[in-house]
Sequence to fold (145 residues):
Amino acid sequence: MKTDSSIAAIYALEQKSKVVRPLFSCGVSAGFPSPADDHIDRKLDLNELLIQNPAATFFVRVAGDSMTDAGINHGDILVVDRSLQAGHGKIVIAIIHGELTVKRLMGGDSSWQLVAANAAYPAVKISEEAGCEVWGVVTSVIHQF
Fold:
């Protein structure tokens, strides 16, 4: 499937939700498994881990393959913080001609472009004429196998 990495859905953060799971203090062996209950270090709150600014955080679902070389695949969920300042090298959600897309922001001073992480897609120069605007900064990707 060759489609640009557009956004299939946007989800707001439900601030009352809390997901707390055990965090093991020992490394995970890729070989023979060992009992790990004795190594639980503390509880891990996924909101605390993934969300810095709850009021400005959204989740978006990726549709397309333009960011696969950055580890962002079709169907992944991105954690997006709209309060963060976008800068060179950051992966951002941008609005291009009224549609949301995920790309890497590259450039500086007055020359900026949105660059795909897949050679099959050209870079898009950010300009008022092109109708481009940065919507938020991607802070994490949730990828399921």
